[in-house]
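Notebook, p. 212. Picked up where the previous page left off. The plan for this session was modest: take the two constructs that came back from the sequencing core last week, fold each one, and keep the raw output in the notebook itself so nobody has to go hunting through shared drives later. Recording the first one now, exactly as returned: residue sequence, then the structure token string.
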Amino acid sequence: MVNIRLNNGNEIPQVGFGLWKVEHTADVVYNAIKAGYRLLDGAFDYGNEKEAGAGVKRAIDEGVVKREDLIIVSKLWNTFHEKGRVEPITREQLKWWGVDYFDIFYIHFPVALEYVDPNVSYPSGWTTLDGKVRQSKATIQETWEAMEHLVDIGLAKSIGVSNFQGSLLIDLLRYARIRPAVLQVEIHPYLVQEELVQFAQAEGIAVTAYASFGPQSFVPLKWDKAVDCPRLFDHPVVTAIASKYNKTSAQVLLRWSTQRGLAIIPKAQNPLRALENLDSTSFDLDPEDVKAISGLNRNLRFNNPPDYLGTLYIFA
């Protein structure tokens, strides 16, 4: 398996397994580990960390892996950005997973929202209990310093940011005592983000792409932007390249990302699809094929909060 070396010397697999909207999570995680996946990408907001932890425990108890073989990833949700809330919720999430540390812990979004007690509402989502989107006054610097403390006390080996754009990264790097090891953002052929990728990589920050299949994961949410968009799996440019290499469209889309030096975290409920995704680094696309897929760029972002909240213009 191909690994990516982070700026702190730690390594992560280039192909991981994402847990957003995964059902029957314990069984899926266990089967993913048995299939060969070693990076599991979770989050408070996914609402399935206890179940993911059960799958990990089963795999460890049966001797499939040891804890140190796995890269367990989670994220700090928006309602815990105040300095005093970061460590307590991280410890709670670790308890759900049944582990002592996260290998990577991200700030999920560059947005601080009013606190919501997870014992009352879990996952908390974007709104307060009365259904309002209310921001808190926590700055990214305050939150990042609390994230650095997690590394200091051994609760996280690496810390990173998700859904950050270039200007926020530039600002973060001015004061970061511990530089972000990874940037996780939406990247697919409809949203290539070439400049952001180049900037992050030039700064020694690894980049993980989510939503590698474009609209595919968002169609079940019935978001118009995704429903009305041509499926990348069926796009003639992608299908022609898949035929050329005798691979699936999914494998071609994933290889397009990994050949750009990106890590990927596709999910698959189907065990055969999971194996195909894991095998997506076993071939190389010709440069002209990478260029042809990149040429599909529309700067089309599916995970855009104003589209589903009517506010929080993170990417404006």
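Okay, moving on. Second construct, recorded in the same format:
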Amino acid sequence: MRRIVLAIGLVSLLTAAFAAPAAAARPTLLSRAVAINAETGEFDTLLALAGQYPDIVAALSGKGQLTLFAPTDQAFADLFAFLGTLGVSPADLTSEQIARVLLYHVTAGRYSADRLTGVSGLTMLSGEATSVTADGGVAINGANVIIADVASSNGFIHAIDAVLVPPSILADLGL
């Protein structure tokens, strides 16, 4: 069942990404993420989840400048394993909670890694704050930026090694 949902989500994303006009000067965050995933397979989970939320797809493929902190598939696997040790299954999360987690990975504005070194925190599209550190490399809420500055027409993608979980979700789960 999960594979079917992931496949449907990925098909939705691919459809949205390639429905954009061919004359676009540079690819959007969404189409860049899809292209990177086609090459590396690192964002299957992120793209499949995001594909289930039309508002998120629209934001990532729109004109507004955004920065996406994109967790790798391993980051999601690590989170799911951790939740499992607490007796929480990803299936226990509501659609609204999943949307909040995804929106907690996107902030308004075009933040390169250099620009991130000059900020101490960001407010994400979920409305919740994160902390940014730059001691030996950029990290957001402790998640390390492992690939920085993937540019697109509407912002930057930074691959991260952990899933950012909003404080409100931790509270919802009693953690």
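Notes on construct two before I forget. The two ends are 28 Å apart (CA to CA).
Flagging for discussion at group meeting.
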